[in-house]
Specification:
about 170 residues, mainly alpha, about 0% strand, transmembrane helix, membrane, transmembrane
Length: about 170
């Protein structure tokens, strides 16, 4: 997650916290949020997390295979970002579960509003992490052989053929 995304999440937390203190009914009175910020949020985040982590694992394995074929580490930064993003999704999912337990026990309207605000922040963080994974993958360009490496590979293929080794 980059600095702009982190600042956006902090700003969102600030706005929703101020809203929870000054006008808690805005969040607690919203029927959609009341119906969504419960087990429905957990189900939505769980589906997003499972699909994303499966995709991230496939991407990670594909990058490993490319590096193994080339015998060089090209994608260590991309693999690190993808792994970090996957761990963030798991962390945010656990935070959402804890928030749902707290929401059910909260009696004060301001506390409920604050929990709804944090839940919306978790959802926004999920969207940012998904974007981060997609951006990381699309930022990876092709690894084209240079003239020297192509010549070296061609020479390595021709040498055993010249020696009669098949």
């Amino acid at each position: 997650m980059n600095a702009i995304a982190a600042c956006a999440l902090i700003a969102l937390i600030g706005v929703l916290s101020a809203m929870s203190v000054c006008a808690p009914a805005v969040l607690t009175g919203n029927k959609f949020l009341q119906g969504f910020i419960n087990h429905e949020l957990i189900a939505t985040l769980g589906v997003i997390m499972s699909i994303t982590i499966a995709s991230a694992s496939q991407i990670h394995l594909a990058l490993n295979q490319i590096e193994e074929r080339r015998n060089m580490l090209y994608f260590s930064e991309a693999r690190r970002e993808i792994a970090q993003s996957s761990y963030l999704l798991i962390t945010f999912f656990l935070v959402a579960i804890i928030l749902m337990f707290l929401k059910e026990e909260a009696g004060d309207i301001r506390v409920q509003s604050f929990i709804i605000g944090l839940s919306l922040t978790v959802l926004a963080a999920y969207i940012i992490v998904l974007y981060d994974i997609v951006a990381s993958v699309f930022a990876i360009g092709p690894i084209l052989p240079t003239r020297q490496s192509a010549a070296a590979e061609e020479e390595a293929i021709e040498e055993p053929a010249k020696a009669g080794i098949h």
